[in-house]
Amino acid sequence: MDYERTPDERFVGLPDWPYAPRYATVGEGLRMHYIDEGPADGPVVVLAHGEPTWGYLYRKMIPGLVAAGRRVLVPDLIGFGRSDKPVDRAAYTYGSHVGWTGAWLDQLDLADITLFGQDWGGFVFLVHVGVTPDRFAAVVAANTGLTDPDVMAAFTPENFAHAAGAFLRWREQSESPDLTASWAVGSPDSALNQTAHLLTEEQAAAYDAPFPSERHFAGVRQFPHLVSLDATDPPASMLRRAWAGLAAFEKPFLTAFADHEDITLIYKQLFHARVPGAKGRDHVTVPDAGHFLQEQQPDLLVDAILGLG
Questions:
Q1: pLDDT of 233-258, one tens digit each?
Q2: Most Cβ neighbours (<10 Å): which of 45, 120, 161, 255?
Q3: Cis omega (within 30 of 0) on the bond before 234?
Q4: Full-prediction pTM beyond 0.90?
Q5: DSSP 162
Q6: What phi and psi values does residue 9 have, to the nearest 5 degrees?
């Protein structure tokens, strides 16, 4: 497989990111990066990022979780961060991301995981919750979702645009030759940035560090096209299996959606109605935040994780 590996020097001296890199080999010899902080015997928390970010998105949450005695693991999805980046967009499928992250979970032999998944971090890792629920102790689904192919089959492009027009606008923006990760996170013109959250020059450089060339950018460009809007295989059968597991998941399942979130909001009621562990919970509406709520309300999100036990 033809892939790019971002040079290590791109990650030197990033603000608020002192963490030593670790790697696992997944798929066809791809190197998947993650950090592993806190006590080795502490309760496990996995923080999963989405599009077009990487583990740096969690820099404000990691210290509080570690201080509370949690073992905090933050993987970079293949195509993002310090992980390897296949050049061919066709390499990035929903199934391949689930396979790569599943191999990572298996290699680290993680158990009793509290998952915090945002954006594609939820769309990918929630498949594992549904298919291997015994591995997970609790879930926080934050500005994320999991497509039910039978429900989504009822949506046409027109009425999906009414429900999530920002997503379709982002899908268009993701193809722009001028796109950068920092623009997507910090620009008020980005379809992903519903609030006026501006990055410093140093923070912007950190978000852009993984992507020194267009050859490194294939995963970013492909992700918006992987959301399933119908019941076509693949990945419909995989998603049906995942939803069957979630429909029996009785362990704590908390949602945390920002008050200025548009793209994933249609999934909140789906979780509340269908996941037993979500019923009767004091779900979180995150104030003064948008899609990248980790940037704006990190302490509130840390408290939400710790409140699950």
A1: 889 999 999 999 999 999 999 999 99
A2: 45
A3: yes
A4: yes
A5: H
A6: -65, -20
One-letter amino acid at 32 equals M
Structure tokens at 106: 């298996």
- Low-confidence residues in the chain, pLDDT < 50: 156-157, 159, 162
Q: Do the bridges between strand 253-258 and strand 284-286 make them parallel or antiparallel, or are there none, so unpaired?
A: parallel
Round to the nearest angstrom and report the end-to-end CA distance of the chain.
42
Query: Which pLDDT belongs to residue 159?
Result: 47
Helix axes 120-131 and 236-246, enclosed angle (nearest 10):
70
Q: Around 252, how many Cα atoms within 13 Å sit in the side-chain half-sphere?
A: 20
- Count the Cβ atoms, other than its own, within 10 Å of residue 258: 25
Helix (H), strand (E) at residue 237: helix 236-246
- DSSP E strands in the chain: the ranges are 3-4, 22-26, 30-37, 44-48, 71-75, 85-86, 113-118, 136-142, 253-258, 284-286
Share of the chain above pLDDT 90, in %: 82
Burial category of 208 from C-beta neighbours within 10 Å (exposed 0-12, middle 13-18, buried 19 and up): middle
Burial call 23-59: b when 16+ CB within 10 Å, e when fewer: ebebbeebbbbbbbbbeeeebbbbbbbbbbbbbbbbb
Is the peptide bond prior to 149 cis by the omega test (within 30 degrees of 0)?
no
